[in-house]
Structures are given as C-alpha cells and as structure tokens.
Amino acid sequence: MVFALLSKIKIIKNTIAVLAVSSLIALSACKKGENTAAATDKTEALQPEKLVVDSVKVNDSVKIADSLTVRFTSKMLVFPTLKDKTLLDSIYFHHQGIKDFSKKGIEAYLDKDKNEYFKSVKTDSKDWLSDISYAQSWYANSQMNLVSTDHDFMHIEYVSSAYQGGAHDNFGFSERVFDLKNNRKLELKDITSMPKDKLEALLMKNLNKENSGTTDSDGDVNNSEMLLVDVIPATNNFYFDQKNLYFHYSPYEIAAFAAGDIVIPVSWDELKGTLKEEFKERMKIK
Q1: Which H or E element spans position 219?
Q2: Interatomic CA distance for residues 203 and 201, integer angstroms
Q3: Burial 9-36 (b: 16+ CB within 10 A, else e)
C-alpha cells in the first residue's frame, strides 16, 4: 500500500514537472513571437513611405475689354506622402504663401493667385487700355513638371511664361533636385568639389554641345555666337542623369533672347576625382 502511494506521488511530481517545462516553453515562444512582431513593426516603420504624386490644374480667362482678353493657366504638383515642412517649403519656393500643402490647399491657393492676377491687370489697365488699337490676348502660365525620381532624387522642372504686350513673350526655367532620403534640396556642393573657376571653364568649353535650336539663313546658329557674358556662371539651376550634370539657362541669362534657353552638359568623366563619394555611390557612377 505504501509502495502504491509512493508511486502515485512520483507520477504527480513528474506530471507537475512536465507541465512546468511546457509552460516555460510556451511563455518563451510567446515572448519570442512578440519580439519578432515588434522587430517587424519597427522595420516596417523605418521604411520610407512610397512617393505619391498628384496635380492641380487651373485654366481660366477673363475679358477685360473688347481689345484685351487675359488668360491664367497653372499646374502644380501635390505630394500627399511628403510631410517635412522644410522640404515642402523648398519644393514650393516660388509660392511662399502656401501654408496648406494638401490638394485642397493647393487648389485654394491657385484660385486666389488667379483672382489676384485678373484683378491686378484690371486695375493697372485703366490708364492705358484705351491706347490698345487692336485686340490682344495676354496670359500668365506656370507649370511644375516631375521629370524623374531615380535613386530617391526627385527632379522637378518649373516653367513660367507670360505675355503682357510688347514684341514677344517672356519665359524661364528653374531646375531643382530634391534629396528624398534627407528631405532637402540638393546643392552643387553635394555633387562635386570642383573649384568654381574650373567648372565655369568647362561650361564655356561645352557651350555648343547642345544647340538651342536657333537658326538663320545659313542654318544652325551656335550658342557661342549669341553669348552675352564673358563667364558662364555655375548656378544651382542644374539637374543630372546617368551620363551628365546639366546646367540650364533661361533667355537673357547668358545669351540673347533669340538663343532661347540653353542647356550645357558636363560629363561625369570631366568631373572625375571631384565627385562626392556618397553621391557617386548612390548614383552608381563608375
């Protein structure tokens, strides 16, 4: 009888031990699962949100008088997933009055901009409107064009043009590249350490590599034939691709209006030895 009792006690002890070990294993697995889930959540949180791009367009006109019609057109990009205010301020640098960067906010801003433009033309035209001897159409146009987002560098081209009487209209270009990894506008110093004078010498050397398209009775006209400056400045109005760094100049900036806008390429080979290592690796430049 005692032996039977001892056997029962032994069985109970073994059962308790097995249950205890099972509980520890289950608890450990649970904690491991929680840690794995937490690590997964953390990894997912560190992943940058996918860039989403939308746009807002306005196209409207008003007749000021029988002799004058005015049109306002504008296209602005909208970036719902970008939240950094400093970056957004830089993207919309030409419209400092924007406080709400949502699609609805951009629409409201453009509508206000349009109304102010129409109002200013109406107000300013009171003194000279009667002097217009034939029907004219004036306009103000602006566009933001997304060119590329390669390697998390977002290139936007800003184009503006206007006509308010005179011999011809006026237009200009602004190129900006934004570093989406670091939420800031890319500067020339982030790409190359080449001294300014040497870079400007390359710009002069490469001036005629991409013809502006200007022609005369003899055919194509070289950009150098219409140059208005002795030194071509290396400005922050640049962009790039896998082959070259490009500098973009608007009419009158370095050449006569007849030359139009001029783009001057500088190859990565010409900048060899001066390219910033981080930029070179990110762009996979050999």
Answers
A1: strand 219-220
A2: 5
A3: eeeeeeeeeeeeeeeeeeeeeeeeeeee
Average pLDDT, the chain: 86
DSSP at 231: S
Closest Cα partner for 90 from 190, 159, 184?
Answer: 184
How confident is the model over 230-279, as pLDDT tens digits?
Answer: 999 999 999 999 999 999 999 999 999 999 999 999 999 999 999 999 99
Phi-psi region of 186 (alpha: psi -120 to 50; beta: other; left: phi over 0): beta
pLDDT single digits (tens) 1-23:
433 433 444 444 444 444 444 44
Residue 29, token pair as written in the block: 């697995």
- Cα separation of 84 and 69, whole Å? 40
Q: Is residue 219 classed exposed, middle or buried when 0-12, 13-18 and 19+ CB atoms within 10 A define those classes? A: exposed
